[in-house]
Amino acid sequence: MANALRILVPVKRHPAGSDDGRKGDRLCSFAWTGGSLDGGYYYLWPLSQSGLKPRIGKTQTSVDITGMRQAMNPFDELSMEEAARLRRDDQSPMKVSQVLAVSAGGPKTVDVLRTALALGADRAMHVEVPDAKEGFYSGLEPLTVAKMLKGVVEKEKINLVFLGKQAIDGDHGQTGQMLAGLLGWSQATQASKVTVKDEAGTVEVTREVDGGVETLESKLPMVITTDLRLNTPKFATLPNLMKAKKKPIEKATLADFGLDESRRLNTVKVTEPPTRQGGSKVEDVDGLISKLKDLGAL
Amino acid sequence: MNSLVRPCALRASRHLYPSAGTSPFSRSSLSRLLSTLAILEHRDGKIAGSSLSAIAAAIKLGGPVTGFVAGKGAKSGVATEVAKVEGVETVLAVENEAYDKGLPENYAPLLVENIKKGGFTHVVASHSAFGKNVLPRVAAMMDAQPVSDVTAIEGEDTFVRPIFAGNAVLTVQSTDPIKFFTVRGTAFQPGSSTGGSAQITDGVDPAAPSATTWVSEDLTTSERPDLSTAERVVSGGRGLKSKEEFDRIMTPLADALGAAIGASRAAVDEKMADNSLQVGQTGKNVAPQLYLCAGISGAIQHLAGMKDSKVIAAINKDPDAPIFQVADVGLVGDLFEKVPELTEKLKNAILTEL
């Protein structure tokens, strides 16, 4: 299957909120979905803010995620859906022969990999990285993740990688670009449309840029990072979740890729952002205008 | 000034050792010398507004600042403009239309070569679509871990950035020999764009081929101020209900205030406004003098993109909307009544002042 797509989808779990009094994803906010209530995937993160704001650890060196529920990074769901969409597409000139989901982290990482398998991955790889301190958010640096993914790509003969454009905890937005740089592959970031055009692996990608969109064309192998407008992720159905339990999850370690957890960036401190005090409410438009004048905004 | 190291001493020592950065000598005794490369965007021969913030951040570091531009006509065009920006000492220009579209496949090798040759210790770009696309690739090629969306510089190796959609503020110290970072435009006020007299020199051009070709673009053209740098922003959300209503209600208000138009994710998803107008964690960050929003509840991701605004005003019919917790002034009411009334009164107020 020389002309088949071998897709890698790195997925990441992130603290999504507390479990207190919640009944699961579907009851929660839909702010991360495409706005449609059917078939979307729902997150606790956006609306119920009280339990979701990351707590700053007492020593001001970490974010305390004790008791926070973990969910798949929303952009990674888009990546999974895009891989599944390419597989479903009968008109596509290239068939999908394999979708591999990979994630690094502690034992709970298996949950997010099961979700990925239920969303369409054929198999998964769990790179076991001990949770640095139980309950505290740290995570591997994007450079380490990119090097690890390079190892996976080479070992598994991957020719297309879909990553989310950013993880909504670290907000780095770097891993895809770094992976493409390490591999020397083409990159298309913030993709809102992906079309495989021919058997030779020509791919057209529309990207979200400042002020609008631009369209690029490149050849496989390549790295694509997904933006919110790319698709609407499906909900993992119960039968698919059951099937996912039978799919294989391979274990690996960072050492398998010649890497360790050492960091280039030392955390000096983590603090609360300055809180903004809401001002007063006014009765009418005239009040609004005069208040804005008082504040020097008009 | 705000310099974090002593620029005079640094500059003096650079003059003593002009080859600092490239000679093996510099690696040892002068390794702490700062020298910053600011990667600059331009379009139609004009430097991008966000790039002026990258220069401002570079100046704040304290060492000599070199601006970098590449593309067709870069040397005779935008480089002369960059040379006038106060605080820039040198402009590296590479004339080659292959770089016009800023494709990272060839732009990154170009930067790698110029960073190596110039011996820069810091490389900065704006946290714009271009900066986000190119800088991490360059950093990875040079085995460095970049720092994204920096909002403050606390020392030559210490940077502050928001994480968790701005709900925590992280200070990190980079141990990489070359510090790569992108800056949030609204956090670094550009200095004067006149009065400088930088020297313009040719950068090296490795002419690496790009496997990617640029096909087309579709940019929203607008006479309005640029959203990221506008003094005033009016922003609409789901409460506007449709694109027609969004345009009918928000456009005259923006006109009356000379403001840029923004939108919440909900408004963008429902096609009321273009994607590029989205304000928030995954859209644009703005910090105008006035952020006036209507029909926006104030979800955490939206607040991430606008809570550094100087004055926030909100119009919403739900008195319990979270937006009122951050708004300096709030008006509870139907936006379909209140916004047109506000627009009229603002127009009249401006007329009476004339």
UniProtKB/TrEMBL annotation, chain A:
Q: Name one GO cellular component term.
A: mitochondrial matrix
Subcellular location as annotated:
Mitochondrion matrix
- The answer, when asked if rRNA-binding is one of the entry's keywords, is no
Q: What is an example of a GO molecular function annotated in this UniProt entry?
A: electron transfer activity
Sorted alphabetically, which InterPro entries does this protein's record hold?
ET-Flavoprotein_bsu_CS (IPR000049), ETF_a/b_N (IPR014730), ETF_b (IPR012255), ETF_beta_N (IPR033948), Rossmann-like_a/b/a_fold (IPR014729)
- The entry's keywords: Electron transport, Mitochondrion, Transport
**Note on how the cofactor is bound:** Binds 1 FAD per dimer.
Which superkingdom? Eukaryota
Question: What Pfam families does this protein's entry cite?
Answer: ETF (PF01012)
Tell me which cofactor or cofactors this protein depends on.
FAD; AMP
TM annotation in the entry: none
Every copy of the Electron transfer flavoprotein alpha/beta-subunit N-terminal domain together lies at 60-261
Q: What's an example Gene Ontology biological process for this entry?
A: fatty acid beta-oxidation using acyl-CoA dehydrogenase
- Transport found in the keyword field: yes
Q: What is its main location?
A: mitochondrion
Tell me, in a sentence or two, what this protein's role is: The electron transfer flavoprotein serves as a specific electron acceptor for several dehydrogenases, including five acyl-CoA dehydrogenases, glutaryl-CoA and sarcosine dehydrogenase. It transfers the electrons to the main mitochondrial respiratory chain via ETF-ubiquinone oxidoreductase (ETF dehydrogenase).
Quaternary organization = Heterodimer of an alpha and a beta subunit.
Which PANTHER family does UniProt cross-reference here? ELECTRON TRANSFER FLAVOPROTEIN BETA-SUBUNIT, ELECTRON TRANSFER FLAVOPROTEIN SUBUNIT BETA
Q: Which family does it belong to?
A: Belongs to the ETF beta-subunit/FixA family.
Q: What is this protein called?
A: Probable electron transfer flavoprotein subunit beta
From TrEMBL, chain B:
Q: Pfam families under this entry?
A: ETF, ETF_alpha
Write the record's keywords in alphabetical order, separated by commas.
Electron transport, FAD, Flavoprotein, Mitochondrion, Transport
Q: Does the keyword Nucleus apply?
A: no
The processes (GO biological process) annotated in the record are: fatty acid beta-oxidation using acyl-CoA dehydrogenase
Keyword Mitochondrion listed: yes
Q: Cofactor: bound how, per the entry note?
A: Binds 1 FAD per dimer.
Q: List cellular component terms (GO).
A: mitochondrial matrix
Q: Which CDD domains match?
A: ETF_alpha (cd01715)
Q: Where does FAD bind?
A: 238, 264-265, 278-282, 295-302, 316
Q: Name its cellular compartments.
A: Mitochondrion matrix
GO molecular function ontology, one term from the record: flavin adenine dinucleotide binding
Query: Which cofactors are named for this entry?
Result: FAD
Q: Identify the InterPro entries for this entry.
A: DHS-like_NAD/FAD-binding_dom, ETF_a/b_N, ETF_a/FixB, ETF_alpha_N, ETF_asu_C, Rossmann-like_a/b/a_fold
* Electron transfer flavoprotein alpha/beta-subunit N-terminal domain segment(s): 36-223
Lineage top rank: taxon = Eukaryota
- Please give the subunit comment from the record: Heterodimer of an alpha and a beta subunit.
Per the entry, what this protein does is: The electron transfer flavoprotein serves as a specific electron acceptor for several dehydrogenases, including five acyl-CoA dehydrogenases, glutaryl-CoA and sarcosine dehydrogenase. It transfers the electrons to the main mitochondrial respiratory chain via ETF-ubiquinone oxidoreductase (ETF dehydrogenase).
Q: Which PANTHER family match?
A: ELECTRON TRANSFER FLAVOPROTEIN ALPHA, ELECTRON TRANSFER FLAVOPROTEIN SUBUNIT ALPHA, MITOCHONDRIAL
- Protein family: Belongs to the ETF alpha-subunit/FixB family.
Q: What is this protein called?
A: Probable electron transfer flavoprotein subunit alpha
Organism expressing this protein natively: Arthroderma otae (strain ATCC MYA-4605 / CBS 113480) (Microsporum canis)
